[in-house]
Specification:
Elements lengths: L21 H33 L5 E7 L8 E7 L12 E8 L5 E5 L10 E3 L4 E3 L6 E3 L4 E3 L8 E2 L1 E4 L2 E6 L7
Antiparallel strand pairs: 1-11, 2-3, 3-4, 4-9, 5-6, 6-7, 7-8, 10-11
The structure holds FE2/S2 (inorganic) cluster.
């Protein structure tokens, strides 16, 4: 009596009998490469979409001068260090605002940057207007747009008086009004 060997499973060309054959390996490799590719593209994109919900804009109170140095009814330019200066920024870290003393203890601070394309605006006391030299933007004394391309009023900074010092709460440009 002869014993015939039992036939094994039929294999196609390229298949092996190991625990992970070449076809399975290539399928898993494709999935892994696709997942890495999707992560490379997807993570920054999701981060970009969610950033506004988590980003905290640095805001800092900066002293700009003693109260008595500002005359009631006048608008003067004050300069101060930006809210988020880079260590190597040097003089570029300085920014400015137009500060008006309205009454004995109330102040208004306007951004110097035009809401069109950011050029520094000038205060013309005779006309009681802010003028932008770049494209002819004009703002009334309260910062609202009088003429030209600016799409919205000059942003304002919060102002307070602490220990006899006028302080402006800075925020990065563009300022969110
Ligand atoms: S930047 Fe001021 S009008 Fe254009």
């Amino acid at each position: 009596m002869t014993i015939e060997p039992r036939p094994g499973p039929r294999r196609t060309a390229g298949e092996s009998s190991g625990p992970l054959n070449r076809k399975d390996f290539l399928a898993k490799l494709t999935i892994a490469v696709s997942a890495v590719g999707a992560a490379i593209i997807g993570v920054p994109f999701i981060g970009f979409l969610l950033a506004p919900f988590f980003e905290r804009q640095p805001q800092t109170w900066r002293a700009v001068g003693r109260v008595e140095t500002f005359k009631i009814g006048t608008t003067v330019k004050v300069s101060f260090i930006d809210a988020s200066p880079l260590p190597w920024a040097g003089v570029v870290a300085r920014t400015a605002a137009w500060l008006r003393r309205e009454t004995q203890d109330s102040f208004i601070a306007f951004s110097v940057n035009c809401t069109h394309l950011g050029c520094p605006v000038r205060w013309l006391p005779g006309a009681a207007l802010f003028m932008c030299p770049c494209h002819g933007g004009v703002y009334y004394g309260d910062g609202t747009v009088a003429a030209g391309p600016p799409p919205k009023p000059l942003p304002r900074y919060p102002v307070r008086v602490r220990n006899g010092q006028v302080e402006i709460r800075t925020s990065p440009i563009p300022i969110n009004p």
